[in-house]
Amino acid sequence: MVQGIGNWLVKHCKVRPDRLALVYNEKRFTYLEFNERVNRLANALLALGVRKGDRVDALLLNTNEMLEGVFACAKIGAIFVPINFRLSVEEVLYIVNDSRGYHFIYDCRMRPLVDQLRTKESCLLEYIHVGNQPHEEDLLYENLLENASPEEPGFEIGLDDIHLMMYTSGTTGRPKGAMLSHGNTQWNAINFIHNTPVDYTDATLAAAPLFHIGGMSVFTLPLIYKGGANILVDGFDPVRILQKINDEQVTTLFLVPAMWQALMSVPNFDAYDISSLQFAVSGGAPCPITVIEFFQKRGIPFYEGFGLTETAPFVSILDKENTIRKNGSVGKEPMHTTVRIVDPMDRDVRVGEVGELIVNGPNVMVGYWNKPEETKEAIRNGWFYTGDLAQFDEDGFIYIVDRKKDMIITGGENVYPIEIEQVLYRHPNIREAAIIGYPDEKWGESVKAVVALKDSSQTLTVEDLEQFLAGKIARYKMPKQLEIVEALPRNATGKILKTVLRQNNSKG
Questions:
Q1: Which of 8, 26, 44, 69 is the most exposed place for a label (fewest CB within 10 A)?
Q2: Which CA distances in Å does 443 have to 401, 411, 435, 446, 450?
Q3: Which Pfam families does the entry link to (predicted)?
Q4: Phi, psi torsion values for 17, nearest 5 degrees
Q5: Residue 231, SS3 per DSSP
């Protein structure tokens, strides 16, 4: 009987019950203990009236309760909805009402935001409080578990059933709930394990936020599928991360590029023993070559992945042998996923030509929650249209050229910001870089660079940039304007918010 991803834990309890599953601060759970807590939460939710297909919203940090929620919902056919804890109360309210969840699990550190949420009109019926100082009307998480049965709920769950709804970052409008099935998550895990050396003996550090598909499904869920250990960290502090790698003998690590950059910027980096790391993965945005070189020089094989919330997320991976040789590429498709690059007429483009990247496979989402038109637009004839512009090289490696919406057209020429940004990251005094377009009466659009400096006491001018970029990029791609900022605006997952930069530019 297929029981979806909840059956992973059942299997591990039979084969390796005493193997370490989760570590969060001083708490350590074996697979047997983890599964029992999941069962107790699942049965508690059933007692509260949660049924198959119901949404359970959660405002949680990277804690054991987050993963208990994922698997408890999976075992009873409910849909777990992790919410970005960095959102405003109005943004959280939108997701709560859009998902139509009646039950809300939240961490005590989110109490100020949740107190505001209570004053708003929502469909929430029950608040489940994790930690200290609950509201008087809250249900207490640990009390619910203590009073619930540890027995398996025993529901028959199919791989086509939805278990997770992750809201896209919403950088271009209201976020959409991507519905991911048990099969999406399981095939993503199979793809990942097939293309990387991850094993059940591995321990990963879950430092990227679990409300994001990268944090949840690059290492965390695949490693649970494999039977390895997840070391959970509820906030990103580069020094703490380095210390955790040493203390817990972490073997694998996923971070977004901004996090990798923060890690390598720790002044006494080499004082920490991170020799246990066997390989590392970067994703979520293009990773500067300087970051890859830094870690490869220290003997840490570096992989670069590409994926989306809607693809659960694995679309392609650049392996350790090619991260330097094919820098700028996101690698090749995995075993169970197919990628094409097509023109506006859905015809495959030739090698070196730019088109839209489309994805087909068992990891492609079911659709967007309550958005049939958007789903129909995104998934056509079984193919998910990513909105990313890409090209193949002669060896079949994929290069993401840019998002459709970020492409600049100047004088009839297409300019792809990523290409210029990767060159700018090699400038000795540029810490962060983003390229945007701005209206130009003569050319339609012109190119602008927005950068943060390593040393703000040193001046940087457009002429300096032009001199540095000369011979590295075509003349028409040269930035005509330069803005220096303290830091680039980013969302919770580290992606640069170019919409904000463009808005600020239009105001300026």
A1: 26
A2: 21, 4, 17, 7, 20
A3: AMP-binding, AMP-binding_C
A4: -60, -30
A5: strand
- CATH level 2 (architecture), domain 407-507: 2-Layer Sandwich (3.30)
At 131-170, the pLDDT tens digits run 999 999 999 999 999 999 999 998 999 999 999 999 986 5
Q: How many helices (H) and strands (E) in the chain?
A: 16, 26
Q: Would you give the end-to-end CA distance of the chain in angstroms?
A: 61
| Placement of tokens 């009390």 in the chain | 143
- Please state, in angstroms and rounded to a whole number, the distance separating the CA atoms of residues 430 and 297: 21
CB 238 within 8 A of CB 265: yes
Find the range with the poorest average confidence among 125-139, 236-250, 469-483: 469-483
87-105 core/surface letters (b: 16 or more CB in 10 A; e: else): bebebbbbbbebbebbbbb
Average pLDDT estimate for 117-124: 95
Tens of pLDDT, residues 372-397: 999 999 999 999 999 888 999 999 99
Residue 284: which residues within 8 A CB-CB, separation 6 or more?
A: 208, 212, 214, 256, 257, 493, 494, 495
CA–CA separation, 330 and 281 (whole Å): 11
Q: 169: which residues sit within 8 A by CB, 6+ positions away? A: 175, 491, 492, 493, 495
Count CA atoms within 13 Å of residue 400 on its CB side: 30
Helices of type H across 173-252: 182-195, 213-214, 221-226, 238-248
Domains 6-392 and 407-507 agree in fold: no
CATH topology of domain 6-392: Rossmann fold (3.40.50)
- Using alpha carbons only, how large is the chain's radius of gyration in Å? 23
Residue 387 phi, psi dihedral angles, 5° rounding = 80, 5
DSSP codes of every residue in 340-357: EEE-TTSPBPPTT--EEE
DSSP sequence for 378-431: HEETTEEEEEEEEEE-TTS-EEEEEEGGG-EEETTEEE-HHHHHHHHTTSTTEE
Which residues face 244 on adjacent strands? none
Q: Would you say residue 172 has pLDDT above 50?
A: no
Q: What average pLDDT does the segment 401-425 reach?
A: 78
**Cα 231 from Cα 206, distance rounded (Å):** 6
Q: What are the pLDDT digits (tens) for 34-78?
A: 999 999 999 999 999 999 999 999 999 999 999 999 999 999 999
The domain segmentation of the chain, as residue ranges, is 6-392, 407-507
